[in-house]
C-alpha cells in the first residue's frame, strides 16, 4: 500500500517530504532518550485535588517542542529511492544512517529501477556531436522541456572520432575507433569515470578490419561488463576474437566463440536490461543475410535471434518500454515506419505502424518512451509522438557538424566501480590527456 501511494506522488513532493524528515528524528519513541526528572508532575502547597488536570489538558493541547516524527525505515527508503541523484548526494550529509542506506547495493538497484521506469513518461537524452570548425566532440544533456546543457566529458575532446556505447545501468562507455582504444567508463550523474587498461591482444592484419564495442550488466554478480570484438571481414568464414572486461575483477579475459558472423559497426546496436544486441551478417547457403545476435551474460556466449522475414530498407534496433524493438522503414514509402517487438516465446510481432513522417531529412532512432527522434535538412532535431505523428519537442545546436549526432536515452544511477576518478572541467581534462599522450609518444619513440 505504501509503495502504491508513493508511486503516485511527484518528485518535488518527495523533496519536500524528505526535507521535513531530515529535520526530525527518524526513530520510534522507544528509541528516544528518556525524559528528564523535571518533566514530571510537581506537587505544590494549597493545590486542590483536581487542579492537576488543567496542566495535563494543556500538555495534550500543546505538544512539547521536543516531539518527533517517526517514519518506518522502509518508507524512508521508498521515498529516497525515487529522488534524483543530485538530491541524494546532498542528503548523504543528513545522517550516518542515510549515508549508509544510499550506499547499499539493494538501494542503488531500487533507485535505478525507479529512474528507468520514470523515463517511460519522459526521457533524458544524452547527445554526442562534433564542432563544425574544430571537429572536437561535444557531449550534452537534454531534459525536456529544459534547455540543452553541455556537460564535462572525461574523454579528450581532441580525439574527434569518439564513439558512445550505452547507457548500461547508468554508465556510458566512450572509446576511439577503429580498434576500441582509450576505453573510458563514465557515470555522468555521479560525475566519475575510469580509463580501462587494454589487453595485449592486437588485430591480425588482413583478417580483422574493426573492433566492435558493447556493454552488458550481470545483475547476479552486480558486475558491469565491456565486450571488445575483433571482427573478421566478410570474405573469412572464421569466428571473431572476443574478449570481456569485468569491472568487478578489473581484468579482461578471452571468451570462447564458435558462432560465425560479421559485425559492420563499431558499437552494439542497443542494450536492453543489461543485454547487448548486434545487427550482423551471417553466412548461409545463399550467401549471407542480416540477423540479430545477443550476448548471453549468464552463459557468456552469443545467441542468434529469430528473423523477422521481409523487411524494408532501414532497420534500427531500439529499446521501447523495456523491450527489444526494431524500427523498419523506407524513405521511398513517404517515411512510413513499422515498429516490431521481440518476445522470447513468440518471436517478432508488429506492434504498430507510424507515419507518414513528413518534413524530416533523417530518422535518428527512437526513445524508450516511444518518441521518434528525427532531423530536418536544417539540422533541427524533433521528438515526435509515434501515434499522432505530432511534434512534441524540438531543439538545435550551433556550430555542430551535420551528421555527427549520436542520441541515446539516459537514466541516472548511483552505481560506481572501483578506481573511478572525478570528472574535471573539460579544459583541465584535455590538458591532462595531452600530457599523457605526449609522454606515451615519447616513450614509444625511445
Automatic annotation (TrEMBL):
Residues 1-22 form the signal peptide. Pfam families: F-box (PF00646), FBA_1 (PF07734). Residues 38-50 have a biased composition (Basic residues). Residues 65-115 form the F-box domain. Residues 51-61 have a biased composition (Basic and acidic residues). CDD domains: F-box_AtFBW1-like (cd22157). Keywords: Signal. Residues 29-61 are annotated as: Disordered. It comes from the Eukaryota. This is F-box domain-containing protein. It comes from Solanum verrucosum.
Amino acid at each position: 500500500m505504501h509503495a502504491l501511494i508513493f508511486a503516485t506522488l511527484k518528485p518535488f513532493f518527495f523533496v519536500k517530504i524528505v526535507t521535513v524528515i531530515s529535520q526530525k528524528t527518524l526513530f520510534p519513541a522507544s528509541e528516544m532518550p528518556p525524559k528528564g526528572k523535571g518533566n514530571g508532575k510537581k506537587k505544590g502547597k494549597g493545590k486542590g485535588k483536581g487542579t492537576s488536570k488543567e496542566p495535563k489538558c494543556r500538555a495534550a493541547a500543546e505538544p512539547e517542542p521536543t516531539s518527533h516524527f517517526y517514519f518506518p525505515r522502509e518508507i524512508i527508503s521508498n521515498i529516497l529511492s525515487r529522488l534524483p541523484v543530485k538530491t541524494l548526494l546532498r542528503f548523504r550529509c543528513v545522517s550516518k544512517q542515510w549515508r549508509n542506506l544510499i550506499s547499499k547495493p539493494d538501494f542503488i538497484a531500487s533507485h535505478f529501477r525507479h529512474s528507468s521506469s520514470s523515463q517511460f513518461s519522459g526521457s533524458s537524452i544524452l547527445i554526442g556531436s562534433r564542432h563544425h570548425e574544430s571537429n572536437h566532440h561535444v557531449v550534452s544533456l537534454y531534459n525536456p522541456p529544459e534547455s540543452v546543457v553541455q556537460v564535462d566529458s572525461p574523454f579528450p575532446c581532441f580525439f574527434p572520432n569518439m564513439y558512445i556505447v550505452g547507457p548500461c545501468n547508468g554508465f556510458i562507455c566512450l572509446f576511439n575507433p577503429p580498434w576500441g582504444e582509450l576505453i573510458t567508463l563514465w557515470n555522468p550523474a555521479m560525475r566519475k569515470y575510469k580509463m580501462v587498461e587494454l589487453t595485449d591482444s592486437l588485430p591480425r592484419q588482413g583478417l580483422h578490419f574493426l573492433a566492435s564495442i558493447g556493454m552488458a550488466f550481470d545483475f547476479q554478480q552486480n558486475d558491469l561488463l565491456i565486450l571488445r570484438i575483433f571482427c573478421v571481414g566478410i570474405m573469412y568464414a572464421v569466428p571473431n576474437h572476443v574478449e570481456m572486461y569485468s569491472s568487478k575483477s578489473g581484468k579482461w579475459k578471452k571468451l570462447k566463440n564458435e558462432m560465425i558472423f560479421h559485425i559492420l559497426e563499431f558499437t552494439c546496436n542497443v542494450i536492453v536490461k543489461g543485454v547487448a544486441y548486434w545487427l550482423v551478417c551471417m553466412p548461409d547457403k545463399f550467401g549471407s543475410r542480416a540477423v540479430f545476435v545477443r550476448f548471453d551474460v549468464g552463459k557468456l556466449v552469443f545467441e542468434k535471434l529469430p528473423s523477422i522475414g521481409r523487411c524494408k530498407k532501414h532497420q534500427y534496433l531500439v529499446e521501447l518500454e523495456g523491450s527489444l524493438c526494431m524500427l523498419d522503414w523506407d524513405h521511398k514509402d513517404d517515411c512510413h515506419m513499422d515498429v516490431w517487438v521481440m518476445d522470447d516465446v513468440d518471436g517478432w510481432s508488429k506492434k504498430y505502424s507510424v507515419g507518414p513522417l513528413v518534413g524530416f531529412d533523417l530518422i535518428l532512432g527512437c526513445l524508450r518512451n516511444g518518441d521518434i527522434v528525427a532531423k530536418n535538412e536544417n539540422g533541427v532535431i524533433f521528438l515526435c509522438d509515434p501515434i499522432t505523428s505530432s511534434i512534441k519537442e524540438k531543439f538545435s545546436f550551433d556550430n555542430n557538424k551535420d551528421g555527427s549526432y549520436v542520441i541515446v536515452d539516459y537514466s541516472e544511477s548511483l552505481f560506481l566501480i572501483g578506481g573511478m576518478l572525478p570528472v574535471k572541467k573539460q579544459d583541465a581534462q584535455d590538458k591532462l590527456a595531452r600530457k599523457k599522450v605526449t609522454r606515451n609518444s615519447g616513450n614509444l619513440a625511445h
